[in-house]
Structures are given as structure tokens and as C-alpha cells.
Amino acid sequence: MTSPHPDTWMRVTPKGLFCEPAGVYIDPSRAVDRAIISHGHSDHARPGHRAVLATAETLAIMRARMGADRAGGSQQAMALGAPLDINGVTIRLVPAGHVLGSAQVVLEWRGSRIVVSGDYKRAADPTCAGFEPVPCDVFVTEATFALPVFRHPPAAGEIQRLLASIRLFPERCHVIGVYALGKAQRLIALLRQAGWERPIYLHGALIALCELYESLGVPLGPLLPVPPLQKRGKAEAGLAGEIVLAPPSADSTPWSRRLADPVSCAASGWLRVRQRAKMRGIELPLVISDHADWDELLATASDVQAPEVWITHGREDALAYALGTRGIRARALHLVGRGEDEDEALPEAAPEPAPAA
Amino acid sequence: MSGSLAAFADLLERLLFTQGRNAKLALLRDWFASQPDPDRGIGLAAITGDLGFATAKPAMIRALVAERTDPMLFDLSYDYVGDLAETVALLWPAPEHPEPPPGLADVVAALELAPRASVPAMLADWLDRLDVSGRLALVKLVTGGLRVGASGGLARMALAEWSGRPVEEVEEAWHACLPPYLPLFDWLEGRGPRPDAAGAPVFRPLMLAHPLEEADLAAIAPETHRAEWKWDGIRVQACAGPSGRRLWSRSGEDLSAAFPEIVAAMEFSGVVDGELLVLRDGVVAPFGDLQQRLNRKIVTPRMQKEFPAAVRLYDILFDGAEDLRPLPFDARRARLEGFLATHAPARFDLSPLVPFAEVEELAVRRATARAEAIEGLMLKRADSAYVAGRVKGLWWKWKRAPLSVDCVLMYAQRGHGKRSSYYSDYTFGLWRGEELVPVGKAYSGFTDVELVWLDRWVRAHTTARFGPVREVEKALVLEVVFDAAQPSSRHRSGLAMRFPRIARIRADKPAAEADRLEVLAAMVGKG
Ligand SMILES: [Zn+2]
Ligand SMILES: [Zn+2]
Q1: Which residues form the signal peptide (chain B) (predicted)?
Q2: 0.80 exceeded by the pTM?
């Protein structure tokens, strides 16, 4: 008997990708009965499912972000690599290398195998387990950075540029705009690897998830909240020579008056295109991403040896074309609610509202 | 040892993203301190636009990358990035094990010598050896697209700060050297004498005036001071001698190519200081006319005929090789008059002194001077030597009372550096029928306390956000003062203001009672 093609048992529905024989959705965009969640970012992990399957770390992140009551009626933790049978479908979670707890969902039914990779990257990340390629019949991939202009440089080099800037501007404070889950902790861990032992200062919005990472066994070193201004109204800003992490755009709010003449930095794969970084008024763009770049997308498609690749969101035209030239069939799924990956978002660009006199 | 192009690429990138002047100065100081010769001087010349070699056409770069990339992926990428140089830098397929990157000095030397036909192969070899930032820097360098917002004036300020020498001395020595400025760096690092221009038509830093405050008037008297008109053109320095002629701007930019008729008229040997103007039958045209001539690399005979340029002289620095700068103002003035009488160069005339018996008389003349080409009065100490820079108490500028209109705040933008958390750049408009049309932008004139108030007002009345820009409720009236109004095809309102600044916040005034565009239109040519 030949194995059934995955498109006979995996369906694209308005709520997301649905495994029919197991009766389970993967990263559904709306509340469902049974969901497998690849990782904790809000475009993958939504509140209100009746039953949720995920890694213990992802479940902890969901509880921390949504509150225990909204993070799933029942939560079942799955150890990485351990198989689980639901109605004859064998399900395994395999590391995706994206953020702490992130996993690819491997589903096998009657000898046919599909891998739903969620978001992933291939570069090393001290805060999470590295991506493991699993050979399959269909590989489901993101395409956030699917253009050959996106090639992320080694993150260590970007950290060195940040440290060089701190040496050059000792009287200023460096504020890095990052999102709370994943990027913040990876940057801290990279700074520790580069020998930065001083306390790293955090905007209030980042503290809870950093504490959670530490409690889940990811050491981040000394972290402190950004102290409030000493005297009201007086220009007595502080933290010269220090590193502050804050949500993107926080350095344009009154909060930033606590800081000494801040150098506005940001960390994202989008910053590879310098014109865009400039439009957003970023002084020091750091090209650090938790998503696969162009080379990683192509290498991964080849590593998993799949004859067919489904693309969930991103720049599917370029990736589908490039896979086609390599003899791999590609299909765009146009999943609803994806593409605004919170870990890569940037403050919006400015139009030219008025002439300069 | 040759410095790497990677270090230069890094400097360019930081300069491109940095808005604050102080931060740019810090980046340049670090460049001078950390780079070897001749690279630091070559990098400096590249940034200030003083490097001369034939540049490559973008089409050639495009052909190079087309040989190495898939056309479909190139199109998708170019479409996304929008800038050819950057697309090429990002897309260029680097070899697995590249050769070490080329040095900046090697690249520039090779480009200066290379026959045009061999440039593509050289470029391809270098691109193979560079990372993304290096490739972008190289492409911008060879296509002449290096614009990072660092002028020659800023670079010389950074040299002065880095070396601890006065900026005026650096200015003069700079103009006595050519890239890569080796004698300049030798002097700045204490290894050699100060480079001397000796007869060459180099720029000599100008003497500048302080704005006159009400309290300073007490020190002015007809016995000790001379008065002259402050013409509304641009300050220039004309240098001519056996080794050449140059027309310099106030900040030491070379304007010679833009004003060939002035250079042709410099039939003298010496250095004079004056105001560049458009002059028709002895009548000074509005500043807008001069603007038609500025910023143009090539000037047509028709432009010269339509907007004839002239220089109205204030002062003399050198007569032949004789340095007159140590002489008192009165003595230099006599020498200037004699100089003009002797040489009588076409297109040069003398700015007359404004005689006065008492200070009140000057106040009246300043207030009633309605010729639009007059910005106000200059008051100079009769015994002052010509000292480079803005030395307090010697020269004063006493500008005419500004014009003013009541505008409505439309947009606010975040400032830079220390002001980056404040909405400190304001775009305002005037009524045309039922709609507001933007007429200008200002980021000065208010106090720190007013800035805090304005920032809070902007945040509380935002109706839309575009990155660093907020659109606000059309509800706040600002009294805007400016030096002149002029027609402008670049502005939707058809009008532009010169030096607008916020004089007062008129929170008391309803927006509907702000001025109409006609009010500003009627001020054109007044000022
Ligand atoms: Zn994600
Ligand atoms: Zn995602």
C-alpha cells in the first residue's frame, strides 16, 4: 500500500492547519478544541483553546503571558522527541531553534510524514535547543526572510559592533529595542558570551519573561530595572555607558528621559536593508534575527529531503521560485494571522508629511 | 600597513545613521585616532567629497551583478530594496573562502590609475573580498554616491577637537594640503610644521559676528565703532594670485565652479571678504534669485545672464602677499578702498559705511531700511584686527526686526540626540479657504520650559502617527517669526520662509483666528 499524500489528511482551514485523523490544529489563529502550539509568540500561541499540547517551556510561557486560565483548558506537556499517538497519528516535537521551548511538530500517518516547523533558525542560540532536520514527505516552512538580500551575519559580530559603540560613546546610554520573548533573552545571553558582565538594565515590560527564562534554567546574569528619574523635571538622566533593553519605540516615549542621551539601537533581521533602518531613525542597527535567513531556508529544504514544501507566511514568491529551480514543489498556504511576527517587528516608518522650509 | 576598507565602511554606516552633530564629531575623532596614514586622510577626503577619480556608471555595476545572479531573484530583490547600490551589496554572491579585503588606500590608488576598461574586473575582485557593508561602501565610492551628512566644516571641527588645535588654524592648514593630507596629520600629531599655504589661493577662516542683544547697545559709540549694511546674500572670500583663483563660502566650500563670471573678474592678487549677491543695474535682487545659482554644479550662460552675480566687499585680508589681518579695521578699510581703486575689478564693489552720530540714529535706520536685500546692520570695532572665528565684543550683527504670522501646528517630529524623546520639530500651516496648508518647519525659538509644554501638548492631541512624526489636532496657534518670505515651487503653499522660529505659543488664540495664506503672500519681498 502506498502512503497517502499529506494533503489528503492535513487541511488548510480558516482557523489554520488541521490534522484530520487526529482532530488537532497546529498553531490555530482562533480558539479551537485541540491545539498543538509550536512556540509562545502571539501569532502562533492564541488564548482560549480547550486542550493544548506543547513543550513544558512553551506552556509556561503561555501561562506567563496570558494567565493560567486563558492558556488552555487543559495543558499537556510533551518532552522533545517522545512520540504520542492520537487516533493512529504519531506526533513528536523536535527542537526548532527559534526561542526557548520552540518545536517543530512532526506528524506521521500510515507511513506518510509532514513536519510543521513553526518559526525556526539554524544559527546557534544559547537560550534554546538547536534545530534538528527531520526527513519528511512535506516540509511546512515560514518565509519571513525569503529574499536573497537577507543573509544574517554572525550574531557575535553584531554584538562586537554594539560593544565598540559603547566604547566610543561612554557618556551615552545604549537602548536596544527588542520584543519581550526570545530576542531580549538571546541578546542578553550573547552579551554574556562576549564577556559583558555588568548589570543589564530592563524596561519593566521585559522583566517577567527574563525571570521566567531564568527559572526555566537559562542563566542571564545580573539584570536590573531601569531606575526612575531622581528629581522631577530635572535633566539628570543616568545609565551612561550601560546597556538598556526596552520594547521597540520605548526610546521615543517620556520613559527614555531616565536615560543619558540614548543611542537608539534595534535588533532585527529587517535591519539588513539599511535604507529601512535609516527611515526608522535607528542609530545603531544590529542584524540579529531568530528566523532563518535565505541561505538557511534553502539549506533546510534540502536537509529535510522533502519533495514538497508548503509555505505558511512571508515572501513566498521568491522562495517558491528558488525551490522550483531545485526541483522541489512549493505551495503557498496563505495562513491567516501570520506574518506579523512580534519578535521581528519594528516601529513603523515615517512618511513625509510636510516640506522643510 | 594599509587600513581596511571594512573600517571605512563601518564609519560610513555609523555616520549615515547618526543624526547628532556631537555624535558625528565623536565618530570622526575616533577615525583619525584609530586609522593609519594614508587611509585616514583618504577616508576623510572621500566623505567630504574631495577625492577626484572618474566614477563608474550604475549600469556597469548592474551588469556585473547580473552575470552572477538569477534575474528573477534580482528583480524581486531590487523591487524590495529600492536602491541599486544596496541591492548589489546585499545580493553579491561571496565566494566560500574569500581573499582578505582590500585596503582603502589601495582601492583609491588603483581607481585613480586604472583605464576605464579595466574597472569592472577590478571591482568584481574587490566585491568578492568584502562583506555587505564593505561592498556598499565600495559601490557608493565608485558611483559617487557617498552622502553621509558630514561636511568639510564638520570634519575640520573634528580634527581640531581631536588634536586640541584651534579650528581656525586647522582650517588654514587643511586648505594648504591635498588628500591624503599627510603634512596636516604630521603637524596635528606634533611631528611637523604647520602646513603653509604661501601664495596659493587657499581659504582663510572668516571673522564672524555675534548677534547684538539690547544690553550690548551701551558699548556701541560712533568714536569706537563703524556701521555697515548686512546684505542678504552669502558671505564669500575671493582669493586670487599667481597660483590660481578661488571663490570660497563662509565654511570653506569651493564655489568657483558655480560662479565662473566672478572668478573671471578676479583680476587682482589678494584675498577679500564680501557678500555674494545677484545684482541687476546696481540693485540687489532678493535672496531667492541667488538661490537659483547655488547648489548647481554646472552653470549655463543663460543662468549667468538671468541671475548676474556680484560681490559687495566688506574687508581685505591680503593685498598681494601682504597679510593685512593684524591691522585695525579702519586701516584695512582704507587699504580695501585703495585696492578697489587700483584694480577696479568688474563685478566687485564696495559696501558703504553707514555714518552715524549717535546710536539712536542707527536704531532708526535699521528699523526703516526697507530694501529687501538688507538683513540689518553690522557694527564693528574700529580697532579690531581680523580675527578668525566668532570672538565676542568685536563684530556685532544687528538684524532687522523679523516678520511674523500666527500659524497652526500641524505635525510634530521627534528631535535628535538629547531631544530624541521630545517632539521638538514643528510643521505649521496657514489657512487657505477651509484647509490648512503647511508653510514651514521650525525647531527653535522656544525655551526648555516651553519645549516640555509643547511635547506634552503634542502627545495629548495626536490624531495619527507615522514613525517619528505625529499629526496633531489643528488647535494650537504658534506665533512664527522669520526673516523673509519668498516664492517657492518646492512647497505646496507656493511660499517659503527664511529662518522661521517659534516666537510664542498662543494657547489663548482659537485656531480659526490664525492667519490666512494671503497674509504671508503679501509679505513676499518685504522682509
Ligand atoms: Zn516566532
Ligand atoms: Zn511566526
Answers
A1: none
A2: no
